[in-house]
Amino acid sequence: MNLLKSISLKHLALTASLFFSIGIGQLFAQNQTPFYTSETNEVVDAIMAKMTMEEKLAQIVGTRLKFVMENGKFSSEKAKEHMPFGIGHFCQFSSGLTLSPEELRDLVRDVQHFLMTETDLKIPAIFHEEAITGFATQGATTFPQQIGMGCTWNPELISKNTASTTKNMRAAGATFALSPMLDLSRTAHWNRLEESYGEDAYLTSRLGVAFVKGLQGDDFRTGVAATVKHFAGYGTSNNDTKELYEEYLMPHEACIKIGGAKSVMPSYGVYRSLPVVANPTMLDQMLRKEIGFDGLVVSDYFAVNKIYKGYKQAPSSMVAGAMALNAGVDIELSSPEAYPLLPEAIEKGLVTEKEINQAVKRSLTMKAKLGLLDKNPQIGQDGSLNFDPPENRKLAYESASQSIVLLKNNGILPLKKNIKKIALVGPNAATVHCLLGDYTYQSMISFWHSTEFDPENPKLITLKEGLETKLGSAVEILHERGCDWSAPLESTIDNSGLGDDRLSKLKLLTIKGLPQPDLENAIKISKESDVIIAAVGENLYLCGEGRERKGIRLPGAQEAFVEKLLATGKPVILVMFGGRQQLVSKFEDKCAAIVQAWFPGEEGGNAIADILVGNVNPSGKLCVTYPKDESKNEINYKRGYSEDNQPQYPFGYGLSYTNYKYSNLKVQSSANITDERFTVEFNIKNTGDRTGTEIVQLYVSPKESNSTLLPIQLKGFQRVELKPGEQKKVIFKISPEQFAQYINNKWIINPEKIEVLIGASSTDLRLKGEIDLNGTKKVLENGRSVFFSVNK
Predict the structure, then answer these.
(1) In which band, very low, low, confident or very high, does the pLDDT at 490 lie, cut at 50, 70 and 90?
(2) Where is the signal peptide (predicted)?
């Protein structure tokens, strides 16, 4: 129901300033560093004491560099006209430009110099950018898409990656990132699944915390502020309160309480009929009062005005701005449409200056924490800059190698020494466009700005290049595309308000300079070869925000192409690129091997080639369930897979070139709810002849039929590297608080019998034990604060 049909503007203001008391009271996370300190308060309060309303409003909006540039250069005249009172943020400042690192830094310095010398308050702006796969700017290291990083199950590696991103961003003068994305993704049909860490709350929380800690470092003055998004439940149709609290809020809560995140972005979604960006239940009650978040809330781009133009929940931009501000959104991004109208909202009684001051204080406090309000703030790094140094490329290679999942192997991999001729076919065999996930620099500038990117800056390694490097002259590689990605164009965009056809432009960029695919030649060289490597799947224009596909089969004619390759009788190794699971059920049994490569980033070609030839033993495990059909029903392994609807591959699944034996499980027979931790230990042994890394997984399941716990839940994991014949002991320390449930608006731990399951996936469970969690039901008055097991 449209609220505006039943309530007056005055009542609308009151509705937007209140919230529903459905939660558990304010949570205070003892391990959080407070957003406000006496030092920042003193600096910020002194500034605010002399601010005019125009200057206050300028600090709670964002803008784009294009408005202060002319002929590719900063224009002080345009700046005087566009931001006479300063500005809060410059939005996605680098992803639409083709500048060298030094040119980008100097542009940022020019803008900041203007703000610090030509405006009365002399306040620098926050320059923010996307950082999900590295700093989204020309020449910067491009890591695998986040869905691939989810399959690494490697928090330490993710922290290293984001720490390298921080160095690049700070060198350019950027201090703030609109990453990571923490949405739980439970259907391959969602076009933004690729940005997520998959379907599981525990895994997403562990990896999200690692991302935030690596990006922010130990000090905001030298780190980059992370923005956790999208709060909360974006990309799902789930409306169950218990699951919302236990699952969808968990990654955000962990990143705030453990990771120290001080910036949150609400989703474009709707909760209880009200857009999240205007929803005080979510942003005030859940986020601030219950989770205890004390930082900055920034809107997603155009989300505030969408309350009016999209959701039709406000009669004007002015009212939309009042609703968002009252709900708790501090900054309107990316361009000021609603917040500049807040003075009018004050006159109409829809908002007070107190709410504006609160948002301004948070905006300025973030700037103070980042060092931007210091007497002589450090803007960028002097000297020549390299955004893709060798140590970064090594991280990109390690990330790609660990993200790749071997889904099937009949023994053909690694490739045998007697193979002399390979047919390398498919639309993704020799292109860079299958390496790049959404919100990489390359994707952003080509999709959003219809501008060609330079595949040499940074150097993007195709599969063909990787194989040629790894195999040398000993093996002949015959290459032919064989088919296009998708013809006709198999995706659509919602271009309301954009008025262009970016997908068609992007497709032209992806095929620029390529010959027409030759199906006959692809079949011919396949018949002549010892083995066929078919590189198929998606690319930039088939997956990502704003790009909607009709289904999740291999796009266009690719499925039929694979069937023609299989008909040759030669072994087919299927290498699938993309941002989601794509159906292989039609021919899975006929393929010799299937490799899920995702969007593997700049070193993708080298990493895939090393796995195919055996230089690297694959270790990736699925962070999503792989479906067998095109059903749009959400999949959650935690509810169990029914006998008549088994997945193609389950959550946690992934093959290796060696074998592992699990043994000697020891679980405490009982523990009290009040205990700090209880211990689970077992042995893992490499029984094969290759060094490998096994991702051991600890799940729990309720033993009692009346339990309200989910049927199975991941509660621990560890990467264990083992040489041939080597055995190691793995120890997990589990907290009873990891069994906390949200029931009747309270966090509680119930006494019950719990089955402990150790395995190689959510269905390949090798060891089973049981613990009696006893005592009296415990209510967590301050909410949950322990989320993870401890590895020993």
Answers:
(1) low
(2) 1-29
